[in-house]
Amino acid sequence: MLSKERRAQLLEKYPSISDLEKKAHKRMPFVSWEYLQSGTGDEDAVPRNREALRAITFTPRFVRGTIQPQFATEILGQSFSVPFGVAPVGLTGLMWPKAECILAEMAKQYDLPYCLSTVATQTPETVGPLVGNRGWFQLYPPKDPEMRDSILNRAQEAGFHTLVITADVPVPSRRERTTRAGMRTPPKITPQFVWQALTHPSWTVQTLQNGLPRLKTVAHYIESKSMKDVTNFIRFDFRGDLDWDYIQACRAVWKGPVLLKGILHPADAQMAVDAGLDGIVVSNHGGRQFDGVVPAIQALPAIVEQIEGKVPIVYDSGVRSGLDILRALALGADFVLLGRAYLYGVAALELEGASLATEILKEDMRNNMIQLGVESIEQLRELIPLSIKVQV
Ligand code: FNR
C-alpha cells in the first residue's frame, strides 16, 4: 500500500488514469500497447463506450453540511473497501511481466476483487495465495468437460471465491489492429521487434527474467508448450457455442457465486436469473468483441429494470475515473470492474502504479460525491429523477 507521502507525491505527478496511460504507452512495446488498446473492425465501440459514459451528467445538491462519502460495499457475500475491482484481462504478461501477480497483491492490500482470466499468463495456483480471499476467476469455456471441471477445481482449491463465465465471445473477434501491429504466436523476430525490445528496456529485462508470456493455465492440458499450439488449442477446443446446460454444469462444480459476463440484453439477463446464477456483468468487453455493439452503459438501465434487484449487477466497459464509477452505480450497477485502467497503472509504475490507479479512483469518487452532495450510493441514486435518467 502506498504511504501517505508517496501517495501525495504520485498523485501530484499522475493525477488521473490518463496520466498513467501516457506513461504506460512509453514503457510498453508497440505490440503490447496495440493489444491492450485495440477494439475490433473500425474501432468505433471503444470510443463509443467513453462518449456514452461522458454524456451522463448529474444535478448536484448543495448546502448539505459536512459530507463524508462512504465506499465500503457488500456483494456476493463478500465485503470490499470500495465498489470496484479489476476485470479479467488475458495475455496479461504481454502487457507487463507478472502483471497478474502485481494486480493480485494490490487487490489484497486495498481490499478489492481481482478477477484472474483463464487466458492469463499466470496460473490460479500462483495467483491464489497472493490475492487471498479477494480472488474471482473468469472462465472461457473449454469443450472438454473434464478439462472444464479441472480448471474450476484448480481455481477453487487456490482460494478463488466467485466464478465469472464470459458469454460474449461466441467467436474470437478479428481485432485487425492487433494483426496489423504484427501480433504473431510465437512472436516473429523482425528488426522492428528487436528495436522495440531495445527501446523498452524495463519490459524487456523483466520479460527475459520471467520468460516469454505463456497461457500457463491452459498450457497445463497440452503436451506441446509452444505458444502457437496453445493458442490453436484455445481457438479450437474452447466453446463459442455456450448454452444454458453448460452453464448449469459449471454451476454444479463451483461452490461459490457464479456470474455471467458480457450481458447486454434484458432477456439474457432474465435467463441468467432464471438459471439460478448469482449475478450478471453488464459489459461489451471494453468494445473489443463486436464493433456494432451498443455502448455498455446504455444497456444498463433496461437490465436494472428487468432484474428488479433479484441479483447483483456488475458493470464494466469504458470506466476511467471515479466519476465514471459513480455514473454506473447511479444507473443501478452494484459494482464496477476496470480492465485497461489497471493495466495502464501496472505498465506505468508496476505495483505502485496499480496502487495509484486505486488511489486515483477513490480520490475521484470521494471528490465527486462531495461535489454532488451525497455520502452513499443510495443517496446518489436519489438524484436520478432530477437528472441522469432522461439523458442516457
Ligand atoms: C479483456 N477482457 C477480457 N474479458 C474476459 O472475460 N476474459 C479475458 O481474458 C479478457 N481479456 C482482455 C484483454 C484485454 C487486453 C482487455 C482490454 C480486455 C475484457 C475485460 O474483462 C473488460 O470487460 C474490459 O476490459 C472492460 O473495458 P475497459 O475497462 O478496458 O474499458
**Residue share in helix:** 40-55%
Strand adjacency order, main sheet: 3-10-9-8-7-6-5-4
- Annotation, overall tally of beta strands: 10
Low-confidence stretches: none
Bound molecules: ligand FNR
Radius of gyration: 20 Å
- Tell me the distance between the termini: 37 Å
Instruction: Please describe the biggest sheet, giving its number of strands, its sense, and whether it closes into a barrel.
Output: 8 strands, parallel
Mean pLDDT: 94
Order of helices and strands: HHHHEEEHHEHEHEHHHHHHEHEHEHEHHH
Structural class by SSE content: alpha/beta
Q: Name the overall outline.
A: globular
Beta percentage is 5-15%
Tally the helices: what do you get?
20
Q: Can you offer a commentary on this structure?
A:
This protein has 392 residues and is α/β, with parallel strands linked by helices. It is 51% helix and 10% strand. The protein has 20 helices and 10 strands. It has helices spanning 4-13, 17-27, 30-37, 45-54, 92-95, 99-110, 124-131, 145-157, 176-180, 191-199, 201-210, 216-219, 227-237, 244-253, 266-274, 296-307, 322-330, 340-372, 377-382, 388-391, and strands at 73-75, 78-80, 84-86, 114-116, 135-139, 162-166, 258-263, 279-282, 313-315, 335-338. The strands form 2 sheets. The protein has an 8-stranded parallel beta sheet. A two-stranded antiparallel ribbon has the order 1-2. Strand 8, helix 16 and strand 9 form a beta-alpha-beta unit. Helix 2 (17-27) packs antiparallel against helix 18 and helix 6 (99-110) runs parallel beside helix 18 (340-372). 48% of the residues are buried. Bound molecules: ligand FNR.
